[in-house]
Amino acid sequence: MIEKGTHLSIQGITVESAYQSINQAMKSKELSVDLRERIVSRHRSGEGYRTISAALKVPMSTVTSIIWKWKKFGTTRTLPRVGRPARLSDRGRRALVGEVTRNPMVILTELQRCSMKRGEPSRRTTISAALHKSGLF
């Protein structure tokens, strides 16, 4: 195995630049709730961002964003992501899956009528996509 500090160049790519590109490509994981709570408690006790960052070995920008989120929303928990709301509720999707499991030969128009009876009108394409996502169509 080649050490990180070794200078080796293959077609203009050094080991150091390869490590940098690998590190940039990797996504970071979310911090645990416990660690986020510790960051907020240290902030409330009067410690500075830099001190918290050094003590918990977390980047200062992460400490800043966690404290900002806590001040704005009053929580450090992961909030729901933004995006378009689903047309079908989980309950409606489960009902469709149950209907198809009971009667595999049912047609999409019939499923559409069933969803309208439940008070959740949906297009055939929406129903088909939901069933496909559930692994049925």
TrEMBL record:
Organism whose genome encodes this protein: Gasterosteus aculeatus aculeatus (three-spined stickleback)
Protein name in UniProt: Sleeping Beauty transposase HTH domain-containing protein
Residues in Sleeping Beauty transposase HTH domain copies: 26-77
InterPro entries assigned to the protein according to its UniProt record, in alphabetical order: Homeodomain-like_sf, HTH_SB, WH-like_DNA-bd_sf
